[in-house]
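Weekly sync, protein design subgroup
Attendees: M.S., D.O., the rotation student, P.L. (late)

Item 1: inverse folding check
M.S. brought a backbone from last month's batch and wanted to see whether the design step gives back something sensible before we order anything. D.O. pointed out we never logged the input encoding, so this time it goes straight into the notes. C-alpha cells as presented (444 positions):
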C-alpha cells in the first residue's frame, strides 16, 4: 500500500514540475514571437520616415509634421488597424484612422521608452474592449544625435497570425510535455520499482540476519547459563570441601576421644553445608520465576547478619552491616550476589584475627548496587594482589585458593564487576558493583 502511494506522489510531483517548466517555456516563446514582430517593424518605421523626408510634398512641412505623416502611412500596410504617434514624453501627437484613441501613453508603457528598443504585446479578444485579437507594437524612433527629434510609434495590427503561431507553439509544447511526462514517468517508475525491490531484498536480508542473531543470542545465553551452573557448582564444591573434611575426620575416629566441642564443630559443619546447598538451590531455580521476583538490600543484609553475625561473635570479631538507599534486584541476580558476598565475608572471617572488625556495606548508586566487604585482617601479599582472581591465590593456610576466581566468574555472569579497592596490613576492602539493569542484560 505504501509503495503505490509513494509512486503516485512522485509521479504527481514530476508532472507538476513538467507542467511548470512547459508553462514557463510557453511564456518565453510567446514573448519571442511578439518581439520578432517588433524587431521587424523597427526598420519598417525608419524606412517610412526616410521616405517621407525625401518626399517633395511631405518635405515641405515642418519636421514634426513630416515625421508624423510619414509614420502614419503605415496604415496602408495590409493587416494594420491603426497607427499612433507620441512624443518622447508620451504625449499624443496624431493617429489614424479617425476616431482612434487620443490618450497619452500610460505610466507602464512610458517607462519602457528609455530602453530605446522596440517591444510589443499580444492583446487577446475579450468581447468587450476588443472584438478580435490585436498585436500592439511600440517602436521608439529618434535621430542619430538624439537632439533633432524623438517619437514613439504604436502600431495596432491584426493578431490572427500571431494567435495561429501561439496555437502551433502550444500544440507542440503540449505534445513535448506529454512525451516528457510519459517518458519521465516510465523512467521514474522503473527506478522506483527497482529501488523498492532492492529495499525489500535488503529488508529480507536484515530479517534473516536478525533471526541468525537471535539464534546466536539464544546459544550465547545457553552457554552463559551453563557457565553459571558450572561456577555455582564450583562454589558449592569449594565451600563443602573443608566441612566435609572435618566431618570425615570425626567419622574416621568412630567417635573415640571426641569431646562435646568436636561434636559441636561437626554439627556446625553440617549446618553450614546445608546452608550452602540451599543457597545453590536458590540460584538454580527456574530463571523465569526469579526474573519476576525481587530481592531487596534489607533481605540480603538480614541473610548475611543471620549467617555470619553469630559466627563472627564466636571468633571474637565485630560484624557490622549498613544499608543505604533503596536496593532491589531480581531474585536471580540477588541470589548470585549473595553467593559472591558470602564468599567475601568467609574470606574476611578467615583472614581477620580475634578482636578485629568486619563490615558489609550495601549501597544504591546511580545505575548500580554496590556491595563492599571490609575487614581489618592482614591483607593480601603483593604477589597475591597481582593474581588475585586467578585460581592459585589464597591468604589461607589451607584450601585450593579458588574462591575469588569463582566469585569473579559469577560476577561476570550477571554483568557485575568485582574489584579490590585496597589491601594492606591494616585491612582489605573488596567491592562488588551490580548494574541495576543487570537482569535485563544477562537474559538477552
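Designed sequence read out in the meeting:
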Amino acid at each position: 500500500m505504501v509503495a503505490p502511494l509513494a509512486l503516485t506522489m512522485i509521479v504527481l510531483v514530476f508532472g507538476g514540475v513538467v507542467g511548470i517548466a512547459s508553462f514557463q517555456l510557453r511564456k518565453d516563446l510567446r514573448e519571442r514571437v511578439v518581439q520578432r514582430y517588433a524587431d521587424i517593424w523597427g526598420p519598417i518605421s525608419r524606412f517610412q520616415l526616410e521616405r517621407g523626408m525625401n518626399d517633395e510634398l511631405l518635405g515641405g512641412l515642418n519636421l514634426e509634421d513630416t515625421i508624423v505623416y510619414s509614420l502614419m502611412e503605415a496604415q496602408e500596410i495590409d493587416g494594420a488597424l491603426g497607427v499612433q504617434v507620441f512624443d518622447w514624453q508620451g504625449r499624443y501627437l496624431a493617429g489614424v484612422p479617425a476616431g482612434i484613441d487620443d490618450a497619452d501613453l500610460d505610466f507602464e508603457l512610458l517607462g519602457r521608452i528609455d530602453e530605446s528598443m522596440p517591444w510589443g504585446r499580444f492583446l487577446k479578444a475579450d468581447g468587450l474592449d476588443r472584438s478580435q485579437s490585436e498585436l500592439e507594437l511600440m517602436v521608439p524612433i529618434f535621430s542619430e544625435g538624439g537632439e533633432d527629434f524623438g517619437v514613439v510609434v504604436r502600431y495596432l495590427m491584426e493578431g490572427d497570425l500571431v494567435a495561429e503561431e501561439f496555437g502551433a507553439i502550444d500544440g507542440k509544447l503540449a505534445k513535448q510535455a506529454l512525451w516528457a511526462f510519459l517518458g519521465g514517468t516510465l523512467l521514474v517508475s522503473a527506478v522506483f520499482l527497482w529501488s523498492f525491490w532492492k529495499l525489500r531484498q535488503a529488508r529480507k536480508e536484515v530479517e534473516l540476519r536478525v533471526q541468525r542473531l537471535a539464534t546466536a543470542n539464544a546459544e550465547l545465553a545457553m552457554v552463559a547459563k551453563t557457565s553459571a551452573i558450572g561456577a555455582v557448582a564450583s562454589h558449592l564444591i569449594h565451600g563443602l570441601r573443608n566441612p566435609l573434611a572435618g566431618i570425615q575426620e570425626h567419622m574416621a575416629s568412630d567417635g573415640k576421644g571426641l569431646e562435646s566441642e568436636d561434636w559441636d564443630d561437626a554439627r556446625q559443619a553440617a549446618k553450614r553445608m546445608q546452608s550452602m546447598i540451599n543457597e545453590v538451590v536458590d540460584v538454580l531455580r527456574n530463571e523465569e520465576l526469579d526474573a519476576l521476583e525481587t530481592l531487596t538490600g534489607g533481605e540480603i543484609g538480614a541473610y548475611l547478619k543471620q549467617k555470619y553475625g553469630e559466627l563472627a561473635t564466636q571468633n571474637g570479631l565485630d560484624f557490622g552491616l549498613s544499608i543505604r538507599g533503596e536496593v532491589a534486584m531480581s531474585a536471580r541476580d540477588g541470589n548470585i550476589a549473595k553467593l559472591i558476598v558470602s564468599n567475601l565475608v568467609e574470606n574476611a572471617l578467615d583472614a581477620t584475627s580475634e578482636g578485629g572488625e568486619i563490615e558489609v556495606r550495601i549501597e544504591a548508586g546511580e545505575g548500580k548496587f554496590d556491595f563492599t566487604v571490609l575487614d581489618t585482617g592482614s591483607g593480601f601479599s603483593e604477589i597475591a594482589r597481582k593474581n588475585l582472581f586467578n585460581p592459585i591465590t589464597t591468604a589461607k593456610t589451607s584450601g585450593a585458593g579458588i574462591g575469588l576466581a569463582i566469585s569473579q566468574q559469577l560476577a561476570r555472569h550477571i554483568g557485575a564487576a568485582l574489584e579490590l579497592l585496597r589491601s594492606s596490613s591494616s585491612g582489605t576492602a573488596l567491592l562488588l558493583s551490580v548494574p541495576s539493569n543487570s537482569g535485563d542484560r544477562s537474559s538477552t
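Discussion: Residues 160-252 form the longest helix (93 residues). The chain is about 55% helix and 20% strand.
Action: P.L. to compare against the previous round before Friday.
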